[in-house]
Design a protein that fits this description.
The chain is an alpha/beta fold. It is built from 17 helices and 16 strands. 45% of the residues lie in helices and 18% in strands. The chain starts with a strand and ends in a 6-residue tail after the last helix. The structure holds shikimate-3-phosphate.
């Protein structure tokens, strides 16, 4: 069988990312795409080593860190090339494409708000297409100055922002959503507004009120993904617009190998989110009046798998629960189908040595011998990956549940 190709988006936070939904449109055979919660640069290196990704997108705030690892200029797409990764910046290509579609006069007066990675991509694109009358404005003046010098344009003080909005023809904001209160009175009908943000855009509201043309961050998102996926899959792709709202998720399901922390993290997370906690193994033990270890011993693994499937389908019919599964849940294709239809799936990841140290003295029937344990881990790794919506490194239950609580609230997983 052909090896499953693995792609992911790396960011913090990451649960809100729509990249997997865009990738799903292409539905390539034997390829899956997940999201990885990255806390620091070392975790990027760790996951690349552990998961052997075929390619990945990097989003805020890790574009520079990821690029530094491969000594490349700031990039957002990395694709496996021999033993390393080749880096590309499809943000620049996307902005260039979106702006070119709008046929700007080269003399257009542009105002760029923000001076981070997104602003860098905008400036590069403006430069390539020859729009060079650009003012840059940022809350931290110094970063606006550095960026302006790099590209030979002007920087203006943040206190002069509104005056500059008035006199600009193309206004591009790369500020985080709702971090600045734009006022309608400085805008007029002949302007064009472009917001790098694709969620809850303040500029979009202003554009509606002022009746001016608006270019959505969704366009940028779609085209950077489109060019990125072309690099991943080495073929032309044609993405369509995503619905503005993502689908509401019924449950959160924790998956991962034995010792991954599904029960301990699940309990804490359910408490933080105020949702019901379900532990499938504990439910089975209670129902059968026997421990998992005894069920395996007396009835065999196949019998246990039937109970597991029954419990999973039963709980997945309900909503708003945090469910901890047993490590083997992804072994069945039917289980994965049920899971994908009703849950946001979080894969708790730890390396094999850490997992073994956590379970070696437990009663788990499949954790009696390190070699077998580690073989099973390697067989299952790709299955966990392709079933997952989010992957997170787990070392400490307090920290992991706190990080997941933040991810789930930020992405409004239960709201859709
Ligand atoms: C199993 C994992 C166990 C339990 C059973 C089988 C597996 O749960 O369901 O022993 O196949 O990996 P944990 O992952 O909670 O240890």
């Amino acid at each position: 069988m052909k090896k499953n190709k693995k792609y992911a988006v790396l960011a913090l936070p990451v649960a809100h990312s729509r990249s997997p939904d865009l990738f799903k449109q292409l539905a390539p055979e034997n390829a899956s795409y997940s999201r990885i919660h990255i806390r620091n640069q070392a975790e990027i290196v760790f996951f690349l080593k552990e998961l052997d990704l075929d390619g990945f997108n990097v989003s805020a705030p890790w574009k520079r860190s990821a690029s530094d690892i491969f000594a490349s200029p700031v990039s957002n797409i990395f694709v496996k090339s021999g033993k390393s990764y080749a880096a590309f910046n499809t943000d620049i290509l996307a902005v260039k494409h979106v702006l070119e579609n709008n046929n700007f006069d080269k003399k257009t007066k542009c105002l760029l708000i923000g001076a981070g990675g997104a602003a860098f991509a905008v400036l590069s694109a403006l430069n390539i297409i020859g729009l060079t009358t650009v003012n840059i404005c940022n809350r931290t003046n110094e970063s606006a100055k550095i960026l302006a010098n790099k590209f030979g344009c002007n920087h203006i003080n943040f206190s002069d922002l509104n005056e500059n909005i008035k006199s600009s023809e193309l206004i591009i904001s790369t500020l985080p959503t709702n971090s600045y209160n734009f006022e309608r009175k400085y805008f007029n009908k002949s302007q064009i507004l472009f917001d790098a943000n694709y969620n809850d855009s303040a500029l979009e509201k202003i554009a509606k009120q002022a009746e001016c043309k608006f270019i959505s961050g969704q366009e940028w998102l779609k085209w950077q993904a489109s060019f990125g996926f072309e690099i991943f899959l080495n073929k032309k792709v044609n993405l369509t617009d995503l619905p503005e709202k993502r689908k509401k998720v019924k449950n959160i399901l924790l998956i991962g190998f034995m010792g991954a922390g599904k029960t301990s993290v699940g309990k804490m997370l359910a408490k933080k989110l105020g949702r019901k906690f379900i532990d499938l193994d504990a439910f089975i033990e209670k129902n059968e009046g026997a421990t998992i270890s005894d069920i395996f011993k007396n009835e065999g693994e196949e019998y246990f798998r039937k109970l597991e499937k029954k419990a999973l389908s039963f709980f997945c019919k309900n909503e708003e629960q945090i469910i901890a599964s047993g490590g083997g849940i992804i072994e069945s294709y039917e289980n994965v189908k049920i899971i994908k239809e009703s849950c946001f799936v979080v894969y708790l990841y730890s390396d094999i040595k850490t997992l073994w140290n956590r379970v070696k003295n437990s009663q788990r029937p499949l954790a009696k011998d390190f070699v077998k344990f580690s073989d099973l881990f390697n067989i299952r790794k790709d299955k966990y990956f392709s079933a997952s919506d989010l992957i997170i490194l787990h070392n400490d239950a307090q920290q992991t549940s706190k990080d997941l609580d933040y991810e789930i609230r930020n992405a409004r997983i239960f709201e859709g």
